[in-house]
């Protein structure tokens, strides 16, 4: 079975937002199979069950690399633990758990994703990487660090990265390519021309 990639956006997010389309194109041009599902968003629509229903329709298996942003990392942890699914690799960006106080709407859609046993996800994946920044405007640095510390020693702190989203200038996220281990000469040369 071939390796496949699934990229999951965060609360009130879009499959077409942030660095997701760029990464999808990059991986596809490297011959990879990539899915970026649109999750149900909005108060009353975003919850663990509705997001699980989307993932249930995709092929998540021991050859899958899951790349998840913001609320999506804890959703992925909960999903793998409940469904007892092993995957190849987890790449988490700005992940957090049991953190409320962003605002009432975010709190209401984030809360159903939280769990108390999320370190159990290590039983379903032994290759976990976390990225987060030192000045996230939505989630405290200490909360993102605690999330990463519970899961892995393989973590990268992006200086002044904000929430590592389009709002903080991330329509590309080149740091992630080192982790994926895919170098695409076509895109690399395009990037060099732009520079």
- What spatial order of strands do you see in the largest sheet? 2-1-3-4-5-6
The H-and-E topology, N to C, reads as EHEHEHEHEHEHH
Structural class: alpha/beta
Tally of contiguous helical segments: 7
Report what the structure shows.
This protein has seven helices and six strands; from the N terminus they run βαβαβαβαβαβαα. With 195 residues, the chain is α/β, with parallel strands linked by helices. The protein has a single domain (4-194), classed as Alpha/Beta hydrolase fold, catalytic domain (Rossmann fold, 3-Layer(aba) Sandwich). The chain has a six-stranded parallel β-sheet, with helices on both faces. Helix 4 links the parallel strand 4 and strand 5. The longest helix is centred in the middle third of the chain and has 12 residues, at 72-83. The chain starts with a strand and ends with a helix. Residues 188-195 have low confidence and may be disordered.
Provide a short characterization of the protein structure.
The chain is α/β, with parallel strands linked by helices and 195 residues long. The chain is built from 7 helices and 6 strands, in the order βαβαβαβαβαβαα. It has a 6-stranded parallel sheet, with helices on both faces.
List keywords for this structure.
195 residues, alpha/beta, Rossmann fold, six-stranded parallel β-sheet, 7 helices, 15% strand, disordered C terminus
